[in-house]
Amino acid sequence: MRRPKLITNYAHLTDGELAVLATRTLDALSTNTNFPDLDPPFAEYEPVARDYLEKHAVTAAGGSLRETKEKDEARAALMTMMRRVATYINNSTDLASVQLSSGFYPVARPGRIDVPRACEWTRIRASRRPGEILLDFPAIREAYEYEKQIADTVDENGQPVWLSAGNNSSSRGNFYAPVQDGVMYYFRVRARNKNGVSAWSPVSSMRATVQE
């Protein structure tokens, strides 16, 4: 029987895909009790992952040469940290369910059709119709449906309080209404196929302006 393993080398991921994985693993490991002796510990992993996410956010829409270099350095540091954490988990357990609770991606079985990959980005933009915002995200080839979530409030930790914005079979023509003038809206999406759902996309936000 083939021994399950996590991928340890993520050099093939784009910057956006790596940001999705960083967010996914931070969420999965922050309260995970399966790895009490995680090596390196979460307290070391978290700041490296968040540093990359911050620098990636700065350069996602451009950025200076210095900012791009800082992002590349943060990316290299994160991939090294991911390799160490995933290797530790591979060596500590043969249970696929426990391995996957870390948020890292499994080594695919030959011929296996996996769950859809996550959307690398999202965007909220104004609509020509009053009281409406448009929701943009890239199409995922292996997905047949997208689950959308919207938030217009945050909790005491500054995290969005998510509400369903419905499901859609296309990445085009998505919108949300009604919105209120001056309110900050947050948006995320994940892809679905018969094998499961992807990780959540990065979160985008915009303060709505409703024209009378």
Would you identify the regions where 5 or more consecutive residues have pLDDT less than 50?
A: none
Largest sheet: 5 strands, antiparallel
Structural class: alpha+beta
C-alpha termini separation: 65 Å
Number of strands: 8
Rg, alpha carbons: 18 Å
Based on Cα principal axes, name the global outline. Answer: globular
Q: What is the N-to-C succession of helices and strands?
A: HHHHEEEEEEEE
Count of helical stretches: 4
> In percent, how helical is the residue content?
25-40%
Strand content bin:
15-25%
Q: Give the averaged pLDDT, no decimals.
A: 91
Describe the structure concisely:
By secondary structure, this protein is an alpha+beta fold. It contains 4 helices and 8 strands.
If you had to describe this structure to a student in words, what would you say it looks like?
This protein has 212 residues and is of the alpha+beta class. 32% of the residues lie in helices and 18% in strands. The chain is built from four helices and eight strands, in the order ααααββββββββ. The strands form two sheets. Strands 3, 4, 6, 7 and 8 form a five-stranded antiparallel sheet that branches. A three-stranded antiparallel sheet has the order 1-2-5, with no helix packed on it. The longest helix has 28 residues. 27% of the residues are buried.
Note the main attributes of this structure.
three-stranded antiparallel beta sheet, 18% strand, globular, alpha+beta, 212 residues
